[in-house]
Amino acid sequence: MKFGSDNTNHEERCSQGHSSASTIATIKAALSAEQDIDSSAIEIRMLGPVVLLEGYITNAADREKAISLAAMIVGHENVQDRMLSRFPTQ
Which of these, 50, 54, 56, 78, could form a disulfide with 86 (CB 3.0-4.6 Å)? Predict the structure, then answer.
């Protein structure tokens, strides 16, 4: 998946009218489209140009996939992982 132009960074897109709401919607859509990730308990918020991934994940792979998808959209330097692990007990 490729989002946006490689010639502009996230801060430049925001200053050109790229809103937090559209960034959040794009990340939510990308997470929903990814079938092997349970994103139902992941919340997405923005603090300036930084995307905050909050909520719960049920395995380490979901954490990595969520971070990777968000980073493809806003750049890795603009993603902050605040997700908590809620691994099922056996």
Answer: 56
In a domain, 51, yes or no: yes
Domain around 53: 10-85
The closest alpha carbon to 30, from 71, 78, 85, belongs to: 71
* Mean per-residue pLDDT, 66-88: 94
CA–CA separation, 17 and 77 (whole Å): 20
Distance CA 32, CA 3 (A): 15
Strands of 1-90, DSSP E:
42-47, 50-57, 79-85
Q: What's the rounded mean pLDDT across residues 57-63?
A: 92
**Domain total of the chain:** 1
Amino acid in the structure at residue 81: D
Helix (H) or strand (E) holding 58: none
pLDDT score recorded for residue 85: 92
Q: What is the CATH number of the domain that holds 15?
A: 3.30.1340
* Whole-number pLDDT of residue 86: 84
Tell whether 3 is covered by a domain.
no
